[in-house]
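Technical annex, item 7. During the second reporting period the consortium partners agreed on a shared format for inverse folding records so that results from different sites could be compared directly. Each record opens with the tokenized structure and is followed by the designed sequence. A conforming record, contributed by the partner at site C, is shown below for reference.
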């Protein structure tokens, strides 16, 4: 699946399906995974079946499956040019304007 052309719902369902496949490859039941992750069996079922859960629950399941390295590269800034590097550096240095007293 190309996530660039998918709806948010489709992306969530695909992630849930990938997590289900990982669980099955590791020969874990939903109950075993839930116990390892510290979530309910219903949460595991919702992630796998509907792609629905809190971010924390998804992270718990990912960690319980030993997939922490898969999270490491998420949302890292990928710079393609010197201009982008300069823009990113300036963005780090910007501060919010001071509030004025009423």
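Designed sequence (site C submission):
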């Amino acid at each position: 699946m190309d996530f660039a052309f998918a709806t948010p719902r489709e992306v969530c369902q695909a992630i849930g399906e990938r997590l289900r496949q990982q669980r099955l490859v590791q020969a874990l039941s939903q109950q075993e995974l839930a116990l390892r992750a510290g979530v309910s069996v219903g949460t595991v079922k919702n992630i796998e079946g509907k792609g629905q859960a809190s971010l924390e629950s998804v992270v718990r399941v990912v960690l319980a499956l030993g997939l922490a390295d898969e999270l490491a590269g998420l949302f890292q800034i990928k710079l393609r040019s010197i201009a982008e590097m300069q823009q990113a550096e300036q963005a780090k240095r910007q501060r919010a304007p001071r509030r004025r007293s009423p």
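The chain has a mean pLDDT of 89. Residues 16 and 48 are 4 Å apart (CA to CA). All partners now use this format for quarterly exchanges.
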